[in-house]
Each structure stands twice: as structure tokens, then as C-alpha cells.
Amino acid sequence: MSSLLSDYHYDLPLELIANRPAPNREESRMLVLDRTSGGIFHRRFTDLPEYLRPSDLLVLNDSRVIPARLRDISEKVEILLLEHRSPTLWTSMVRPGKKMRIGHSVKVAGTTATVVGIAEDGTRTLEFSSPPDLDRHGEMPIPPYFHRPADEQDKERYQTVYARDPGSVAAPTAGLHFTPEILSGLNHAFVTLHVGAGTFQPVKAEDLSLHRMHSEHYTITKGTTLRINETKASGGRVITVGTTSARVLESQPPGPLAARSGSTDIFIRPPYEFQRVDALLTNFHLPGSTLLMLVSALAGRDRILGAYAEAVRERYRFFSYGDCMLIV
Predict the structure, then answer these.
(1) Both ends of the chain: CA-CA distance in Å?
(2) Which residues lie closer than 8 Å to 239 by C-beta, 6 or more apart?
(3) What is the pTM of this model?
(4) How many CA atoms, within 13 angstroms, populate the side-chain half-sphere of residue 186?
(5) What are the structural domains of the chain?
(6) 130 Cβ partners below 8 Å, 6+ apart?
(7) Model confidence over 91-113: pLDDT tens digits?
């Protein structure tokens, strides 16, 4: 069993990190990994339908990314909103933290934010004098490894075409490859998981049993549960688009799936055995990340690292705006 952080590192040339999307969503490459045989095939995302059977169901996360990054009027304080607790109360990451002690206020997003609490992990609870105007003042919270500010292109491309329910502070990036035309031709259903602070928190403990995931809110509707239960009953495969959709389904109790809303902090890593997910479409993940551990649980650590080495040799584009991987 691979239970050490150092078991999940690989070498990635920096030039393979995609900090801009492909000209068109559907133009990404797709590495296909057969987890039974270990076979690797180099395809295009538009070839995805060839790997789907009539009885299969794609499950996608329809959470919408909010423009959650704010800067105060002095441009010296940066705020990343994480969790909406009331119209004027947010859990947030703040930089620099030393300037934002309890009682300190800054003018931001057309209002005033005051620190009313500091958690053990350093996140701040901010109380705004009125709801912040995110549409006017917020920036898309693109990943820090882009090494650039968000711009107009990110408002469209760092969002899936089917995004509906606002609440995420990072995109469920496996879904960025879909166009309305491609999706309309595939059997699919939606869950919602609002991607939160855990996306930005690196794993620090070498012993993975010591790592704790942040809790994230999800919703599964009755319509989606019916589709998934029917798929399983007919012998079809449930294919999740993205690790977020996989985490929602795998966090559910045994038995027929039921509609519910709740929170999950499930940490999926080897030797976890998937109960509801049969296949996964995902992007390439950061070394040492919980997402790399999740796909290793599905396909095996050695096969995943071998596939990643192959992707590096073949010059795939990595991370949020990069190419994708289908694990079947």
C-alpha cells in the first residue's frame, strides 16, 4: 500500500503546465488508460463517445465558479472567498495574514470587510457591511501556478458550459472540455459539489493518514439518483467527469442511491475500493495532490505514474487548462 506522500511525486517539466486553454474546448488530447490491462492509448477528447456504451451514464458536476478573488482599494490585501455563511459573512483566505487580525477592516468590493474570527488553519471569517459586489469587483480564482492575473478569457473558459449553481472557488476542470453539442449527444446527469479550500491546501504530512480534507457541500437530486440507480440495475457503467463528481458518489452510504444534500470530507487514496464509480474522465493532477491519490486508488499507483510518465514523454498539457485522461 502506498501511504506516504513521497509515493505520489513525479517529475514534470514546467513548460508542460498549461496556463491558457486550448483555442477550442474540445481540442484537447485524451490519454486513455485501461486499468485492467494497463494499456495506454493516445486519442482526442472528441473520441470520447467511442469509449461509451449505450447503457453508460456520465455524471458531471454543475457547480458554477464565483469570481471569488478580491483586492482591497489599496491593492495590498488579497481575499479569496471560500464559503458563503450568510449574505454578509464569508470564510476566506487572506494575504498577507499579519495585516488582517481580529477587528481589522478593509474597504473592498464596494463595501467594508472586518475580520471577526481566525481559525486554526489561518482562514478568516469576514463580516461585510453589505454583500460584496462580486460581479463588478471579483476576479475568477484561477490557480496560482498560472503565474498571471485572471482576465476576460478566464471568465468564460474557467467555467464549464453547463455550470449552474454558484458556489465553487475552483473549476471542476474535467468538464471544461465539453461543448453543448458534444454533451447533448451523450447520456448524462448532474450532481453539485462546491469546490472549496481543499483544492488549495497542499498535503504536508508524509504519513497520509494524518491528512484531513476540508469539507465541501454537495447535492444529489432525485432525478440524478434515479438515472444512476437505473444505470447500475441495467449493467451500465457510471462514468464520473472529474474527481469532484467521484467524491460525491463515493461518499454516499451503501445501497440504492438516494437524493440528499450534505457535506463530504472523503479522502480517497489506495487501497480504497470504489463502490459506485466504474470509470473516470479527469485532467492531469499536481504531484503530491489528493487528486493524484484518488486516481491512483482507481487505477493503481504504478499504472497512474506510468501513464503520467508517458504523458510527459508525449508532451501532453497538464493541470486545469490542460489535456485529459480517461480511466476505464
Answers:
(1) 22
(2) 52, 56, 57, 58, 59, 277, 278, 279, 280, 281
(3) 0.94
(4) 26
(5) 5-65+144-327 (3.40.1780.10), 69-137 (2.40.10.240)
(6) 88, 110, 111
(7) 999 999 888 999 999 999 999 99
